[in-house]
Amino acid sequence: MKIIYNYLSLLTLLLLFNVATTKAQDNGKIRVIMIGAHPDDCDQDGGGTAIVFAKMGYAVKFVSVTNGDAGHQTMKGTALAKRRFAEAQEAGKRFGVTYDVLDNHDGQLLPTLDVRLQIIKKIREWNADVVVAPRPNDYHPDHRYTGVLVQDAAYMVAVPNVAPETPALKKNPVFVYFQDGFKRPNPFRPDIAVDISSVYNQKVHAMDAHESQMYEWLPWIGHYLDQVPQGKTEREKWLGQRSAVKITPDVHAALEKWYGKDKAAQVQNAEAFEICEYGAQPNDEEIRRLFPMLAKKEN
Predict the structure, then answer these.
(1) Deepest in the core among 203, 248, 288, 289, taking most CB within 10 A?
(2) CATH code, domain carrying 87
């Protein structure tokens, strides 16, 4: 009986702690969680927007669903996972975000109940208003399954009897997808476009923290390792040039919608997002509240 009593007391304390944490987080400011398959995924796809949010005083968390222990041509396993975790923490400091890395193996991710529960807990603990993830039609199975896992969590985050040790959300977050170029079964639709021109250099500097990826693994697997400069300054300049994403006509149209034609014409770098049909379905007014950098339209 004493053991049971102690267990129940501990569970009660944990529940009270979670409730108190949620209340402390409920300060009226938007809370954003970006979920990627690997350490560096959120950085590349949503890092500029994360910086803009952070500079406005909003809380942003990056979550890598795997530990990245397979993404290198010479390193592997625990040593690589430790290196990539350290890189992620440094990148988080440069972005101005919190960076979590889950201990699931890189290249072996599956949309299991166990991992779904991990993601549900992360979204709840962060008390997220906006959840960002990849679409589930990516070339990489880890990316695809991360999209599936977040979709599977979209309804469950509000169900109290699922993962009851972490209090369910009393709101339905808005779920959005990172931009991609895949066309089937349907192309990416830029419902939201964020001007990141003013923070693009900071984004590149933060991505630079992922040395194992930006200057080693990705160039090796992409067959351009011989193009990587040796000097740090030269590397960042090269990374910025290589990482720039062309603003497509449909993304430009979204920029015009949210910023007006004059300002949209001046945008040099942007990140776009598609609203998922799961979760809350915001109208334009709600989108401007959730993405406050869009709140003012010039014309």
Answers:
(1) 203
(2) 3.40.50.10320
